[in-house]
Specification:
- The protein has 573 residues and is an alpha/beta fold.
- The chain folds into three domains: 158 residues, no CATH class; 127 residues, Tetratricopeptide repeat domain (Serine Threonine Protein Phosphatase 5, Tetratricopeptide repeat, Alpha Horseshoe); 211 residues, no CATH class.
- 51% of the residues lie in helices and 7% in strands.
- The strands form two sheets. It has a five-stranded mixed sheet with strand order 4-8-7-6-5, with helices on both faces. Strands 1-3-2 form a three-stranded antiparallel sheet.
- α1 packs across α9, α13 packs antiparallel against α14 and α16 runs antiparallel to α17.
- The longest helix has 20 residues.
- The N terminus is likely disordered.
- Pfam families: FAN1_HTH, FANC_SAP, VRR_NUC.
């Protein structure tokens, strides 16, 4: 399916500015207020009453109170000791705190569990508080809590703790009551819970630089309130499972199949897949096979085949294996299915299936002095002024692709970019990534035939230097390497590599050979480069490396697998 970006109105530049963290002591407050403005503009139709109420109450606070609240929001946890809230730019903490308590944004008498007390106070402080209840006050902190747990098994407000312990509390404790709301606002802004508000500071200080992408009116991660709630529900289930929660309860709490959102359904499927893997490791194979069938993950079918094989269910396993061979979800699945199929045929008394032989791959064997890095040792051994060798692994081909196709990767399609701190489009790893940009990518790749690809890559290299990209690792690319690559790599080979990347970005942007050797003085019409995969003693090719090498061999691309043995080991034998 061909498609191009929708002709929707865009903003010429981001509406969000980043505060100067070196000059403005309340930079964090400016950035937080910008987030609220951003979310209010883009999600006005989706905000619930709690979120609207928080934004209204926050806007009416004194500046110092706003600053204190944001300081707490950006710190870890929801409970804080007042004696540890000291900020010069805020001043009197009690004065700043009073409006927060009055507005119900902070609770100054929260219920605290024993675990919470042990998180907030030091060992010596706890010994002082509970010394009348500790038979062995010199024990480690964990043992102290274990000794107190039978007696102090309920959550109490600080005053009640003081009364129960018979001693005054060392410090006052307050608790944020609005952290869930703030987390939902952060989710709406970033479209995920992985990124923190620290992204603002990293961008301000130049540690991270991001491409400026125009935002369409529908540039947002969530299109409905249900999307937000389902994301939160899935996130909560994942956390509960990883914390050791009951699997049945976690599965019951997951939302039903999400047919109207591919990316949310994929997130849901990853939780199911993680639970299935846990069941498989625990030997609950029947349950694992069932869950793999519902996870929708690319690798789930192969895992289900393996589980069915372990259960002795060879016929259904073979049926799935045959389907994976005929209509594989990826090259990896086809490769793994081909490896399993002969075992299933043997178990069922069937003839061994015909296998397709891979194209032959060149091999070289080297005996070299022992060194810490086998790749570096080979590079230094082979390198010469006439044929320079570089360690590139997955960086060079990805970088050339990322530079040539920069405008397609960063095209402002609806739902791809929804805040200024994205290193790539949100749908990068989803199947629709290429489909929605097919014409844009074909336009970029056409430069390889038109003869303008070198100039395009060089221009992008100069203009975009240091900007975050999912394909360009700037530290691995320099002028010499780029110049030789543009001089020696045939455009037909580049196109083949790039098209393979686009078929499965997650799998295919890894597994490329370690080294590349250039022959800039070789005559036109001969091979002017060679890729070299290095394997040290006892090391074997990984599956993704085998797929890349087989691909190159099929397309007559010069690839060599270099097997190294250490000279000292030769002498010893």
């Amino acid at each position: 399916m061909n498609s191009t970006p929708a002709s929707t109105a865009v903003h010429d530049a981001p509406l969000l500015t980043v505060a100067d963290s070196l000059r403005d002591p309340r930079y964090y407050l400016v950035n937080f207020e910008n987030v609220l403005t951003w979310v209010s503009e883009r999600y006005n139709d989706l905000l619930d009453d709690d979120e609207r109420d928080f934004i209204t109450r926050f806007q009416g606070l004194p500046v110092a109170s706003k600053a204190l609240l944001v300081r707490m929001v950006m710190r870890k946890g929801e409970h804080f000791r007042l004696d540890r809230l000291n900020y010069d730019e805020i001043g009197d903490i009690d004065a700043a705190l009073a409006p927060l308590i009055e507005q119900g944004l902070v609770d100054n008498s929260p219920c605290l569990t024993l675990d919470r007390l042990f998180d907030l106070f030091t060992r010596d402080e706890l010994v002082g508080l509970f010394r009348d209840h500790l038979p062995r006050p010199r024990d480690r902190k964990a043992l102290l809590k274990e000794a107190l747990a039978p007696t102090f098994d309920q959550a109490l407000v600080p005053e009640a703790w003081a009364a129960a312990a018979g001693r005054a509390m060392v410090a006052d404790v307050v608790c944020l009551t609005v952290m869930p709301v703030c987390e939902r606002l952060r989710l709406m802004f970033f479209g995920n819970l992985r990124q923190q508000f620290s992204e603002f500071v990293l961008a301000d200080q130049g540690i991270y630089r991001f491409e400026v992408v125009p935002f369409t009116p529908d540039s947002r991660a969530f299109q409905s309130r249900a999307d937000i709630e389902r994301y939160w529900q899935i996130h909560d289930c994942r956390e509960r499972f990883e914390a050791g929660g009951d699997m049945d309860e976690v599965l019951a709490a997951l939302p039903e199949c999400i047919g109207d959102s591919v990316w949310l359904e994929a997130r849901r499927g990853r939780v199911i897949h993680a639970i299935a893997r846990h069941c498989e490791r625990q030997g609950e194979l029947v349950r694992a096979a069932e869950l793999y069938g519902h996870s929708g993950q690319a690798e789930a079918r192969i895992r289900r085949i393996r589980v069915l094989e372990r259960l002795g269910e060879h016929q259904p396993a073979l049926a799935l294996c045959t389907a994976a061979q005929h209509a594989p979800a990826s090259e990896a699945e086809r490769q793994q299915a081909a490896r399993i199929q002969p075992r299933l045929h043997r178990a069922l008394g069937m003839a061994k299936p015909l296998s397709q032989a891979d194209a032959p791959v060149r091999r070289c064997d080297l005996a070299l002095p022992r060194s810490g890095s086998v790749e570096r040792t080979v590079r230094e051994h082979l390198d010469s002024p006439e044929a320079p060798v570089f360690y590139v692994e997955n960086t060079l081909i990805n970088a050339l692709f990322g530079l040539l196709c920069w405008e397609a990767i960063f095209a402002p399609l609806p739902g791809a970019f929804f805040h200024p701190f994205q290193s790539g489009p949100a749908d990068l790893m989803r199947p629709e990534f290429y489909l929605q940009r097919e014409q844009l990518f074909q336009r970029c790749l056409a430069r390889l035939e038109e003869g303008t690809w070198r100039e395009t890559i060089q221009q992008r290299y100069r203009e975009k230097q240091g900007i975050q990209s999912p394909f360009v690792h700037w530290g691995a690319l320099d002028d010499e390497l780029l110049s030789l690559a543009l001089e020696c790599l045939p455009p037909a080979h580049l196109r083949a590599w790039f098209e393979r990347l686009l078929t499965d970005i997650r799998a295919n942007r890894a597994g490329m050979p370690d080294l590349i050797r250039f022959y800039p003085q070789a005559p036109e019409g001969t091979s002017r480069y060679e890729m070299i995969e290095v394997k040290g003693p006892g090391d074997r090719l990984q599956d993704n490396q085998k797929r890349w090498i087989a691909f190159c061999a099929r397309h007559d691309m010069p690839v060599t697998v270099c097997h190294v043995r250490w000279q000292s080991e030769e002498g010893a034998s």
